[in-house]
Specification:
Elements: H1 2-14, H2 24-28, E1 59-71, H3 76-81, H4 89-101, E2 104-114, E3 120-122, E4 125-140, H5 141-149, E5 156-158, E6 162-178, E7 182-199, E8 205-210, E9 215-240, E10 246-253, E11 258-261, H6 267-273, E12 285-286, E13 289-290, E14 295-306, E15 317-325, E16 336-339, E17 343-351, E18 355-364, E19 375-383, E20 391-397, E21 403-413, E22 416-425, E23 435-445, H7 453-458, H8 462-484, H9 488-492
Antiparallel strand pairs: 1-2, 1-3, 1-23, 2-4, 3-4, 4-6, 5-8, 6-7, 7-9, 8-9, 9-10, 9-11, 9-14, 10-17, 11-16, 12-13, 14-15, 17-18, 18-19, 19-20, 20-21, 21-22, 22-23
Helix pairs in contact: 4-5
Length: about 500
């Protein structure tokens, strides 16, 4: 039973194809970013932070690669613990509680690809472009409860699946306005839909009714797809003026974000002409068959009082898959709309001479795409004693099914900014992690580095620091000489 369950889960999850915005620094800090993101990297976290770059040089992103995977079961520890022939009651309860916290057996994959040279900031403005691939799949908790406990549990089991595959490009224009004590920022986004496939929640429902004599039920799933789409989004942010190193900020990400799919565009031709770019995501397949661009999938099933004594009767369980034309009268694919989930962020930070500590609270409003309808707390520490080689560590927690330990490193020398971040997702080390996040990227700035003129003048590091120290020493000598040549009146008052 135990081995069968593990094998079944593995088969289901591996059949799937291989925060809207992310960068290596935020990965290393485990998401604590609302008050410390810099330049182009404030987009998607708090646009008000762009005002802190008004006296700093430009920032241009050259390259970034970010990949993430997250589940709530498979880890080295779990495979070792739950490998065997049978599950005892304690093991079964522990495993089921883990699934229950996540609302089922979940599988999430994402990839972020900022387009090189199209992410640029200067002064209080920024232009950004970021391609996001998401793959989200969840087996319902009702099915797992039936597998673990049979029909002796809840009488009505929810069997609603969650399936989403998404490709989208976010184009953003960010600007900020500083005031005396706070700064405000806005990001206006154009959402270019590439492809989408997901279960329509308004047209899908499924359940299983259990009783002492058996179980019965039925359901239907409408899986829709969209090729090409567009929409708009809006990010709003606020940040306080830094006082004694302290900052407090908040933001709403994707306040009004929506995407309308299957709008007329050249996206079909683009996807067809670049098959390697979207391999594993598009074209969509179902049951080994390729789904046409103008088709949706309707899957239905029915269970007629299944009991232990009639398991061999095939007629008791029936299912059917139909590829249906989802088109308008003119033959064009039917347009539909999906909500781009909103996020609320609140954070604070403290800057010290040798380190920065930051903490965030983030909440989603629905379990969709990258969002979770629960609070997530994160804390991050960046050690800056070695100015050109910052070190980072972070931790975040959102319940037993979502925790993360992260670390990162950076290199800042002259015009080059390089960052690397890695996170143990849903775990705190290699043997317990149930996913990972690896991110790295190169960014270009001015030859003097990412500093304002005031910061350069006060720096005591590098060649600039040497020059500043010599300047301070000369100033001290002048002050000493002026004190030595004091007025005769002052000399007469000195004791003899």
């Amino acid at each position: 039973m135990k081995r069968l369950l593990l094998i079944s889960i593995f088969i289901i999850t591996t059949q799937l194809p291989g925060q809207t915005k992310r960068d290596p620094r935020v990965v290393g800090l485990s998401g604590a970013y609302t008050t410390i993101a810099e330049g182009i990297f404030c987009v998607g976290f708090n646009p008000a932070l762009i005002t802190r770059a008004h006296d700093k040089p430009f920032m241009l992103q050259l390259y970034q690669s970010d990949r993430g995977f997250l589940g709530n079961f498979f880890s080295i520890e779990n495979v070792a613990q739950f490998s065997g022939d049978t599950l005892n009651t304690k093991e079964k309860d522990e495993l089921f509680e883990n699934f229950e916290d996540g609302g089922g057996l979940s599988f999430f994959q994402d990839r972020h690809l900022p387009i090189p040279l199209l992410n640029y900031s200067k002064g209080n403005m920024a232009l950004t472009s970021n391609i996001v691939f998401l793959n989200n799949f969840k087996i319902p908790i009702g099915l797992l409860e039936l597998i673990f406990y049979g029909n002796g549990g809840k009488p009505d089991l929810d069997m609603t699946l969650n399936l989403e595959v998404l490709g989208i490009n976010e184009f953003g224009f960010t600007f900020g306005v500083p005031f005396q004590s706070v700064s405000l920022g806005v990001t206006i986004k154009y959402l270019q839909g590439l492809f989408y496939m997901g279960i329509d929640p308004d047209s899908s429902q499924a359940n299983i009714i259990t009783s002492d004599v058996g179980l019965y039920g039925g359901g239907k799933y409408l899986i829709r797809q969209g090729i090409g789409g567009k929409g708009f989004g809006l990010d709003l942010g606020i940040i306080t003026k830094e006082i004694n190193g302290w900052s407090i900020g908040a933001s709403m990400i994707n306040v009004f974000g929506t995407i309308e799919w299957n709008r007329p565009s050249g996206m079909k031709d683009f996807l067809s002409n670049n098959p390697k770019l979207f391999s594993g995501f598009y074209p969509f397949k179902w049951g080994g068959e390729t789904v046409g661009d103008d088709e949706s999938i309707l899957y239905t099933y029915n269970i007629d009082t299944l009991r232990a004594d009639n398991l061999n009767q095939d007629s008791l369980f029936t299912n059917n898959t139909v590829f249906i034309k989802d088109t308008l009268a003119n033959g064009n694919p039917r347009m539909f709309e999906t909500r781009y989930p909103a996020l609320f962020r609140f954070g604070f930070s403290k800057k010290m001479p040798t380190y920065i500590i930051a903490s965030d609270l983030v909440a989603g409003f629905q379990d969709k795409y990258y969002a979770r309808a629960k609070w997530r707390w994160s804390i991050g520490l960046e050690w800056t004693k070695m100015e050109s080689l910052p070190l980072r560590i972070g931790y975040s927690w959102a319940g037993a099914d979502l925790k993360e330990l992260s670390m990162g490193i950076g290199y800042r020398k002259g015009p080059l900014i390089w960052d690397l971040g890695f996170a143990f997702r849903n775990g705190t080390w290699l043997h317990t992690m149930k996913g990972f996040n690896l991110s790295t990227g190169f960014t270009l700035t001015a030859f003097g580095g990412w500093k304002s003129d005031a910061e350069k003048q006060s720096s005591d590091k590098g060649l600039r620091g040497l020059f500043n120290r010599l300047k301070k020493n000369r100033s001290k000598k002048k002050d000493s000489s002026s004190e030595a040549t004091s007025s005769p009146e002052q000399a007469e008052q000195l004791p003899q």
